[in-house]
Amino acid sequence: MPTNKLYEGVSDWLQSAVETLSAAGMTVIAPTQGEPGVVNLTRVTSAEAIAERYDNTLLPLKGQFFPITETLLEFERCEDGDVEIQTEPLPAPDEVIVLGCRPCDAAAMGTMDKVFQWDYDDVRYRARRDRATLVAFACTTPSPECFCTSVGGSPHGDEGSDVLVFGLGGDDSGGRVLLKVNTDKGRQFIDRLGDRVRPASEGVQPPSPPELARRFDTDAVKAWLDEGFDSDFWQQMALSCLGCGACSFLCPTCHCFDIVDEATWNRGQRRRNWDCCSFSLFTLHASGHNPRPEQFSRCRQRIMHKFKYFPERFGRIACVGCGRCIRACAAGRSLAEVLTEVDARQKG
Amino acid sequence: MIQTKHDQDDTAQWQPRIVAFLCNWCSYAGADLAGMSRLSYPASIKIIRLPCSGKVDPMFVLKSFERGADMVLVSGCHPGDCHYTSGNYHARRKLKAFRELMSFLGVDPRRFKFSWVSAAEGAKWSKLVEEITAEARELGPFRTFPEAAKTEASQ
Amino acid sequence: MINLTIDNQQIEAEEGKTLLAAATLAGIDIPTLCYHPAVPSAGACRICVVEITGGGQPGLVPACAYPVQEGLEIQTESERVVASRRMTLALMLARSPGATIIQEMAQEYGAEPVPMDKGDDDCIMCGLCVRVCQDVIGQSAVCFEGRGHERKITTPYDKQSEVCLGCGACAFICPTGAIDPADYCPHPLETIPNDFNCGLDTRTPIHIPFPQAVPNKPLIDRENCIHFITGGCEACKQICPADAIDFDMTDEYVTEKVGAIVVATGYELFNPDVYAEYGYGRYPDVVTSIEFERMVSASGPTTGELVRPSTGKPPKTVVFLQCIGSRREQGGLPYCSKICCMYTAKHAILYKHKVHDGQAFVFYMDVRSGGKNYEQFVRRVIKEQMATYLRGRVAKIFPSDGKLIVRGADTLSGTQVEIAAEMVVLAPAMVPAAGIRNLAQTLRIGYDEHGFLLEAHPKLRPVETNTAGVFLAGACHSPKDIPDSVAQASAAASKVLGLISHQTLTREPTIGIVDEETCNACFECEGACAYGAIGPKELKDRKGEVTAVVAYINEGLCQGCGACAVTCRSKSIEVQGYRDDQLFAAINATGR
Amino acid sequence: MSPEASTAQSLAQTAAEMLSQGQVALVIGYAPTEGKRLSPPVFVTTPEEAQRLGFDSRCFGNLSVYLWSPQVRQMGKTAVVVKGCDVRAVNVLLRENVIKREDIVLIGVRCGGVGDLPAHKCTVCDCRDPQGCDVVVGDAVDQPDGAAEGRYSAAEALEEKSLDERREFWQRQLDKCIRCYACRQVCPLCYCKRCIVEKSTPQWVETSAHPRGNLSWNVVRAFHLAGRCVGCGECERVCPMNIPLGAINQKMAKLMEDEYDFRSGMSPEEKAPFTTFSTDDTDEGIL
Amino acid sequence: MSRAMPNVPATTDDHALIPMDYTSSKMRIASIVDETSDVKTFRLTFCDEQEGEAFDYRAGQFGLYSVFGAGEATFCIASSPTRKGYMECSVKRAGKVTGELHQCNVGDIVGFRGPYGNWFPIDLMKGKNLVFVGGGIGLAPLRSLIWNCLDLRDQFGEIAIVYGARSVSDLVYKEELETWRQMEDVSTVLTVDPGGETPEWEGEVGFVPTVLEEANPSADNAIVITCGPPIMIKFVMMSLEKLGFGHEGIYTTLENRMKCGIGKCGRCNVGNLYVCKDGPVFSYSQLQELPQEF
């Protein structure tokens, strides 16, 4: 079955989709309006709950596959001194449809897939990933902090999503839409929707993506980073960084984690939690030695990792330009500005 | 297979679990005196001895609740009688604020008790434990204190 | 040096000295009335006349005013001298027949009063008072007034003198005791009760607190001293031959670094005036046992004579009441004061020794005479001294016909008894010294509801306290008699010696330890520490340069309460024995 | 010239003077930038760069948080631009020996309030005129009326709710916490070398972002700020999950003012309520 | 099973993925040896016999050991893969897990997952002269390799061991050091830092690099394997340069903090390498290519 095929959705396709999929026992995850100005992905059973207008979700898509905290195993010390270990069962096999993530977040899953599935296959991540279909809604109004075009993405980017939905009316989702199938999973999704979608008429084309200036050149950035490890740029750049984890935790590609035990006297859980390379204790040895003792070295690591180390290792940049780190930064710092300056330095 | 304590809560024999932090010189000695005087009191109370009520960190109380306590008691020397001069005054100030904070966050302040029991007050101790145990039984199991989520984060 | 002869005795004297001074120094006594070493001489009384028999112009001269001269020969008791004194005394006797000293001297010199107007004034017009007031005190509050036989000592215009300080120097110095300063002085001259004798007599502002005081030196009671009240007087300073008076001396706070403290603050007596039925404070003949003790003491206010305060006559019937405040759950103290049974028995004996025909009654609850030979002693009091022991309480004491009617119950015979007593002696409960709670809180040691200090363990550590280095001795700990107090004091002393005889101090390891890596040096812990045990410590690198300042806990001062550990937000302080991981494990275990 | 422009000019001039005369090695101030929601901090080391300094209603940040940063300390004597409310944080830092007065220069700026609305803290501000600064720039500003009444309005609104309502409210709010620790990192008073949550022996506060760990973390943080928090509101501002942290801090600040007549940061000499006690403290609720 | 030292960074494409659910195998503590005041060596056996039989590893690999309730920590495997039926690790008490581990008794159950990481290039070492330079607890990974080589003695040339610690009491594996000293075909030099000696001490007194220079091993056909505190490694490298050793022939092992052990959690990331996957064994020339963040 060919992909990249276009379908048109009628005006109530979304409502129908949610109902149909839910009725089929699937879990539909969609952006919903929480507190004012906050949209997040939550489970929905009706299309009415789905947010109509939003730039992007506050939290990135990654949490659906790599939760902020999850149990790996449970253990209990028995009276006889033995320890009973129960590995946490894998996520239930019911299918999950993410209906309405942004293309940048979908693209970010490509980065996540790389790290969770090389050499060792993280089965918990894999199970969640395998069961999910990503239906992305193309961006119509990127926010001022967005810079996806600078890192090879686009408000209408295909990468990572199984289906990409373009609004043909004003809204993202409510009115008439064009659905572009990118994968087999996407096809299956379309198939489930029955008569609410139909192959697009000849000549119907997706709208052109909104303008988003390209701010820096990742090749130039990489070139500068290759030589710039010892530059004093890092110290200046990092002065205002407060070392919190807001940028990492909201980043759709950051994937560092911690494994901790939490226990009462005889039983407990081993959990995996999000972690952040900006934290001063991240690399601290028990001996007291810390390979990255200063904030600037941690800031450098974060940028190096995203734009040099990760590409070298996995062949792609670990940034999709969603702009969350800029919006979340306590000190008003901007990754895009930093990289723009790096770009400028490289180009002299 | 791995149960939480609440799995067994709803039996008729439910006994509240009260964690008590006692200062060494007054309240612990008072509890000791109650024992020496052959005064009985409910076994629901689990005593942790500290040098002074001033050594009770709010985190101890928090952790006790985390570990399933239905009630926490802190007990020290009467004002002015602290073996360390002022530990109980420090405790009084801090723990009052802590109780207010917990109450503000929706934790029932009746679950957190504070008392003065001197080394000579074995009888007061046993009566106190009787009373707070009765109150804890009335309040029922402390289910509302958050446990770690059983399901994974929904974000 | 000047050589002269007095009464055929060769003596040396400093130039400028008077004959009187020189003679006194040589041990030759020259009588005088108007002379005082602190007061410039006036030669007024003429009693000190001596005869120059050679080496100068012969004749009678006043020894108090005549300076020594080289080669002078003096007779102090020559016929001429004696005759002169006799005449002088005869005149004085006529004027002041009532003055004891004049009577005595007149008798010694065989003087008869001259037949003239008999005076009735003890004043012999020597003017010593005028001189001391003017020249020593510097006030001139008294002066001569009038002429001839009108002449007298008085204040200007016979009014109470505004300049009089009330120092009493005039009265003190008057040879005949003719002056009552109250006549002159506008200031109230209060008598000062003698605390040691329970206020049963008085004392002067300068006094020795009690006969056995160590050091046995007088002290000035500033509150009552004229000098400290008005800034004047200083008579004592002028008079003191040893120049020992220093008004600038003040009480001092003496700061000593010590290795141990023994608390031996003793006891006080419960004030029995809360029991109106006994009339203490209202009826002078109701006294406490300590007052009784002073009365029968040879150094006491009555020099050992037992008399009724109301009449000054020996009491023929004395009733002793025990357990005043003691063993009384309601309106008193629940404990037994322990010593009253025995001292009351002793008092009964003392009473019989003082008043042989007297009768002692003792009201008691139980006679508690546990102790070596104690019971035998009480038996002796009952059998040999015929003291009547009555088991029961006294309900009421009231005066009647100059006596005190003591109405009480004799529970053994089941009868009401009424005794007409001439004196009632109360044995009040022992209570800890005032201020004991403050002291205990300062020393961080425990005390019970009555204020008696708590030992570390009633059986195993009876003289130690919960604060290392602080020990207890005596009644501050509980009611005790003398042998028990001595035993406990000895034990405390040996504990102290045991403590300080070591080079290093051994103490419980329960102390705070600072994690210097993580200490923020905010020093909030310092505020929480009741012992001043926390201060800054400089961390230095190998070159000796200061790299950081952190909190430091002095392990000698720290008592391990842990208040600092709670204050420390970064949890950089652990209390040994109550470490966080230990407490964490304990709390975890409550969840089993 | 607009008031903002004249303030910017004074700031630039003051900073340039201090730097050129060698009084300070670094000036930390705000760099208002077109199109930004927040005027970000700027670290000025040369008189020329001082031109970037300015002040406008987007200068939320409490720059005193940088005073104890190891990198800033390394750079030498530092001048910092502070609003009147920020001075309170500086006072607490001085009180707690985190910084020494002689190591810093305070450039006070008179502030008419920040934020569009403006921020709640600005509507109840009683310290718009910075106290205890070495230099003060900007035009005189008026204090808002009736500041004291609304000071703790967020806490009071919650106090009026029932216990169950409050529990329900806070469970929902705290469950959002992702443990990014932005609240801690932005707080000028969270200067611990090792935060309690980072102490693993024992791990008093669980690091997992589950309801239990989140409650413990937020309780402990609030308690560690009790009697210290100056109400700068930075924690609430930076919280990416929009948890109303300010209300918790307000609650504790209200308690301190009601019980101990104490407002943190009013002077560097004050004694924090939790380092002392009174024998007259209430025995209410003690058995 | 992991691969040794990739020359090309791994990608997802070049081999089958190993499923990973982060569970631990249960191991029982068979014996505990107190090496120093804060180092203990634990001998562990798998509770599941089949698992034990299937278990295989190479000298230089590490594992994640856990005390249930305290968490996981990374240590190298200190015993030789030639000795079957058990596994040993030497643990210095430093943090939470190591502290808890030190509290454990014989018979207690601990968790283990591994082996992870690459290993010493023992195939390259065959026929070569070997110089082992160790300091303090850094002898643990070398011990695995030393016994491995000694158990296959005839496959290697000369074997020299230079080992030092701060003081006599800080020397680990004291009995084995004595055994090596007694061996005729192994030249063993032991040293303690100046001031760390006891009156009975028969070995050298001096820092490891100095003693190494005095021992003067030949660089010809030789491979050096070193492990110890960073400062020691730094000076050992300088000494080795003086002695004429090339960077390619020097191997060491890194001890970055790790949580997952399998190249995901990001902690041990240095440059484009993951110490847990691409290490922990690195040649000196590899290390020089890396950012100095280890």
From TrEMBL, chain B:
One of the record's GO molecular function terms: iron-sulfur cluster binding
Domain F420-non-reducing hydrogenase iron-sulfur subunit D: 18-140
Keywords: Iron, Iron-sulfur, Metal-binding, Oxidoreductase
InterPro entries: MvhD/FlpD
Pfam families linked to this entry: FlpD
Signal sequence residues: none
Protein's UniProt name: F420-non-reducing hydrogenase iron-sulfur subunit D domain-containing protein
Lineage: unclassified sequences, metagenomes, ecological metagenomes
TrEMBL record, chain C:
4Fe-4S as UniProt keyword: yes
BP terms from Gene Ontology: ATP synthesis coupled electron transport
Keywords: 4Fe-4S, FAD, Flavoprotein, Iron, Iron-sulfur, Metal-binding, Oxidoreductase, Repeat
Required co-factors: FAD
Pfam entry (one): Fer4_7
Gene Ontology terms, MF aspect: 4 iron, 4 sulfur cluster binding; metal ion binding; NADH dehydrogenase (ubiquinone) activity; oxidoreductase activity
Keyword Iron: yes
SUPFAM superfamilies: 2Fe-2S ferredoxin-like, 4Fe-4S ferredoxins, FAD/NAD(P)-binding domain
Ranges where the 4Fe-4S ferredoxin-type domain occurs: 112-142, 155-184, 216-250, 510-539, 549-578
One GO term describing the cellular component: membrane
Residues annotated as domain 2Fe-2S ferredoxin-type: 1-80
Family the entry assigns: Belongs to the HdrA family.
Protein name, per record: 4Fe-4S dicluster domain-containing protein
From TrEMBL, chain D:
InterPro entries: 4Fe4S_Fe-S-bd, 4Fe4S_Fe_S_CS, Helical_ferredxn
Cross-referenced Pfam families: Fer4_8
Gene Ontology molecular functions: iron-sulfur cluster binding
Residues of the 4Fe-4S ferredoxin-type domain: 168-188, 220-251
Record region (Disordered): 265-287
Protein name: 4Fe-4S ferredoxin-type domain-containing protein
From TrEMBL, chain E:
Keywords, ordered alphabetically: 2Fe-2S, Electron transport, FAD, Flavoprotein, Iron, Iron-sulfur, Metal-binding, Transport
Limits of the FAD-binding FR-type domain: 22-122
The keyword Iron is annotated on this UniProt entry: yes
Keyword Iron: yes
Gene Ontology terms: biological process: pyrimidine nucleotide biosynthetic process
Alphabetical list of InterPro entries matching this protein: Cbr1-like_FAD-bd_dom, Cyt_c3_hydrogenase_gsu, Dihydroorotate_DH_ele_sf, Dihydroorotate_DH_Fe-S-bd, FAD-bd_FR_type, Flavoprot_Pyr_Nucl_cyt_Rdtase, FNR_nucleotide-bd, OxRdtase_FAD/NAD-bd
Cofactor: [2Fe-2S] cluster
PROSITE patterns for the chain: FAD_FR
MF-aspect GO terms: 2 iron, 2 sulfur cluster binding; flavin adenine dinucleotide binding; metal ion binding; oxidoreductase activity
Protein's UniProt name: FAD-binding FR-type domain-containing protein
Organism: marine sediment metagenome
Taxonomic placement: unclassified sequences, metagenomes, ecological metagenomes
